[in-house]
Each structure stands twice: as C-alpha cells, then as structure tokens.
C-alpha cells in the first residue's frame, strides 16, 4: 500500500485573488451584492459553444427573489441578469415560427418593448454538478438600447424556454465573497 493512501486530499487553491474577486471568479457558494440586495450563488451552469469557448450562468437567490447571472468574457466581461419567463407569456407567433421555420421571428414585442434577434447559437449546457452536457439552441435578442435582453432556448424538438432581463456592467456587482466553510 503506497504511503499517503489514507491522507486527506489537499484542498484546491482558489482560482482567484482573494483581495480582488471579480465577476469571472464567481462560483457556487459565493455571495454578492446587486441591486441593493445580497444574493447567494446557489447553482452554477456551464455552456460549451465549441472551439474551446465557454460561458457561465449562476442562479442567484435572496430572501424574496431568484435571478440568473450570465457571464461571458470575449473582449470584455459581459453580464446579463435575467428572470425565467413562463413560456405561456410569449406571443403565440413565436412558438409557431419555431415549430414551422425552426427559428423565432426576427423581432419580438414583449411587455411593450421591441426586441431584435441578434444571434443564434448551438451549444451544450450542463449544471456544474453533472458531467453530462445537453444540446440546445439559443437565440439572443436586444432592444434598441442594447441594455434590455431577451433569450429563447430550444431543448429537443418542441421544448422551449425564455428569459428576460438587462445587460449590466461588471461594476454592478460588489462585495463578492466565498462563503467560508
């Protein structure tokens, strides 16, 4: 039997500078301040878009609300804060276009705001605690200001989800800390 067989595994070193934690450092179990509330990161998701390009999403909860924080680093860090929508709140023509043409309309009016399709992406999704990735298609929409955001996702042949929210600067999130264990 090799020496050290029963030794406790060495704890992984943090992947961030503990004196300067950024949005890209967030992981499940962290807390942060956003929009005058303190949020806990309760779930962590990973999106694989191919060509070694990954983005992340975090489920944020507080006493009375749940949000999803999407984080992507391309030339700069882009953050989207969304709430999931009941699919029934989407206009019927959106689902009809998806089923008949394989993609949603170029323009969607939701809650009086006009959103324009910006991008279509095929990728793979997983909850970080799972090893299995699920394929899906995503469509991103922005309004004229490019601050308001709407996304539609297709899972399988006829399963759809939607979310609506805003694009936020990285500076909108503060006091990012890991919860001590």
User: What's the structural domain tally?
Assistant: 2
Write down the CATH topology of the largest domain. Answer: SH3 type barrels
Q: What is the ordering of alpha helices and beta strands?
A: EEEEEHEEEEEE
Number of helices: 1
What overall geometry do the principal axes of the alpha carbons give? globular
Percent of residues in helical segments? under 10%
Low-confidence stretches: 1-12
Strand order of the largest sheet: 2-3-4-5-10-9-8-7
Tags for this model:
single chain; 181 residues; mainly beta; SH3 type barrels; 2 domains; eight-stranded antiparallel β-barrel; 1 helix; 11 strands; 52% strand; disordered N terminus
Notes on the protein architecture:
This protein has one helix spanning 92-101, and strands spanning 30-34, 37-48, 54-62, 65-73, 77-85, 107-110, 113-127, 134-142, 148-155, 159-168, 174-178. The protein is mostly beta strands. The protein has 2 domains: 23-82 and 169-178, SH3 type barrels (Roll), CATH 2.30.30; 87-165, SH3 type barrels (Roll), CATH 2.30.30. The model is unreliable at 1-12 (pLDDT under 50). It has an 8-stranded antiparallel barrel with strand order 2-3-4-5-10-9-8-7. A hairpin with a 2-residue loop joins β1 (30-34) and β2 (37-48). The protein is built from 1 helix and 11 strands; from the N terminus they run βββββαββββββ. InterPro entries: DUF4178. Residues 28-166 form the DUF4178 domain. It comes from Algivirga pacifica.
């Amino acid at each position: 039997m090799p020496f050290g067989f029963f030794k406790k595994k060495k704890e992984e070193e943090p992947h961030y500078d503990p004196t300067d934690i950024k949005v890209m450092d967030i992981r499940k179990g962290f807390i942060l301040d956003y929009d005058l509330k303190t949020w806990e990161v309760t779930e962590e998701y990973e999106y694989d878009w191919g060509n070694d390009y990954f983005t992340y999403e975090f489920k944020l909860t507080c006493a009375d609300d749940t949000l999803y924080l999407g984080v992507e680093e391309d030339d700069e860090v882009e953050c989207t804060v969304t709430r999931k929508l009941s699919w029934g709140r989407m206009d019927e023509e959106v689902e009809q276009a998806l089923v008949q043409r394989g993609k949603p309309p170029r323009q969607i009016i939701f809650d009086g705001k006009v959103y324009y399709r910006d991008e279509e992406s095929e990728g793979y999704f997983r909850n970080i605690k799972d090893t299995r990735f699920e394929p899906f298609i995503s469509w991103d929409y922005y309004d004229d200001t490019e601050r308001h955001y709407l996304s539609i996702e297709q899972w399988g042949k006829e399963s759809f989800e939607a979310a609506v929210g805003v694009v936020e600067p990285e500076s909108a999130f503060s006091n990012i800390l890991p919860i001590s264990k």
